[in-house]
Amino acid sequence: MTSKEFKTAISEAKEVLKGKTLIIKFVNGGKIQKLSFSTLKGFGNAILALEKLGAGFGFVKAGNQFVQRGIYKPSEFQTVLTRGVWNEITFLATTVK
User: Fold this and answer.
1) Contact, 34 vs 91, CB < 8 A?
2) Coil, strand, or helix at residue 2?
3) Total domain count for the chain?
4) Tell me: the pLDDT tens digits for 63-81?
5) Which residues lie below 8 Å from residue 71, measured CB to CB, with a gap of 6+?
6) Which of 24, 33, 59, 73 has its CA 20 to 30 A from that of 44?
7) Residue 44 and residue 22: Cα distance in Å, rounded?
8) Full residue range of the structural domain in which residue 7 is found
């Protein structure tokens, strides 16, 4: 997914994302780095920095202490977020093509 599409989806869901732990799993070459944010501002700044590195973005899962729900398509993002009480949302950023 392009960074523009990703940022649009995040913008549309920003009210639901407030107060959640937002995690980015950043795949760069042979290493995976886990970035965790508790504010939308910190998350947004990280997205902009990763975008400058040429990263593509995607959705991984939403979870709480009892269950993890995968998000396999961008179209499922809003639906999954509104159909549960989630503490943590995980995203993917990768420079690997």
Assistant:
1) no
2) coil
3) 1
4) 999 999 999 888 899 899 9
5) 59, 60, 61, 62, 77, 80
6) 73
7) 10
8) 3-94
